[in-house]
Amino acid sequence: MSHDWPVVESRTEYETGWYDGGYDRVEQPDGSEKNYYWAALPPAVVVVAVDDGDVVFVDQYRPTIREQCMELVAGIVEERPVDEREDDQRESSERASGGTASREDGDTEDDDAIRPHPTRESYAAAGRRELREETGFEAGEMHFLEEFWTATGVLRHKRGIVFAEDLTPTERDLDDNEFLTVERVPVEEALDVARAPPANDATIEGLLLAEADGHL
Fold first, then answer.
1. Which residue among 4, 46, 137, 186 is least packed, with the fewest CB closer than 10 Å?
2. 112 has pLDDT over 60
3. What pLDDT score does 167 carry?
């Protein structure tokens, strides 16, 4: 069976500033055509952060589901300034020609390598920023765990999971729509807390991946 279904038409029907929505009309393997509707969102990062035997959660109200949720730190992977992208292109050219290129801010090659898109932050950089903004913790070590598509039947949305440790307290810098409190949960209780209704998919995924990779 073919894994490539021809796209007959692709249409964006609305743009909200937060996500776009539309449909692709595709030719199915039997020759028939069907509209497949989608919503396209920017990629997001989820941070499993551990400090002194506790997992760092945030407790916040989610208007979308009208529920109070205990979640891991998460947020959008933002677009990078144009000059940073140009620096990357220059470093890539230097490496290709046998030269050397320096890295800043303590990011390792692995940290900086995994991006949802060349124009956006790495998952590690986004995770550091979101953790600092939402909780006031600065991560000394940040490890990339996984990247995957979410809700593939309806969303065009990638999610990356990172693990943060060696945390140092700093000041929070909340967005104007963030009203949340920081909660600490012992590692051995974290998954039970995450599974309590209303359970959050990203929080459960993050904890299970961190545990599977030996971080918890």
1. 4
2. no
3. 98
Q: Could you tell me which residues come within 8 angstroms of residue 131 by beta carbon, excluding any fewer than 6 positions away?
A: 47, 49, 56, 73, 137, 138, 139, 164, 167
Mean pLDDT of the chain: 88
pLDDT of residue 126: 95
Alpha-carbon separation of residue 24 from 8, 41, 55, 56, 109 (angstroms): 7, 16, 41, 40, 37
Residue 119 contacts by C-beta under 8 Å, 6 or more apart in sequence? 79, 80, 85
What residue ranges define each of the domains in the chain, with the CATH number in brackets?
1-40 (no CATH), 43-146+157-212 (3.90.79.10)
Written as six digits, the tokens of 116 are 């949802």
pTM for this entry: 0.84
Of the candidates 170, 171, 137, the one whose C-alpha atom is nearest the C-alpha of residue 50 is 137
The Cα–Cα gap between 131 and 129 comes to: 6
Predicted pLDDT at 196? 94
What lies within 8 Å, CB to CB, of 168 at 6+ separation is 137, 138, 140
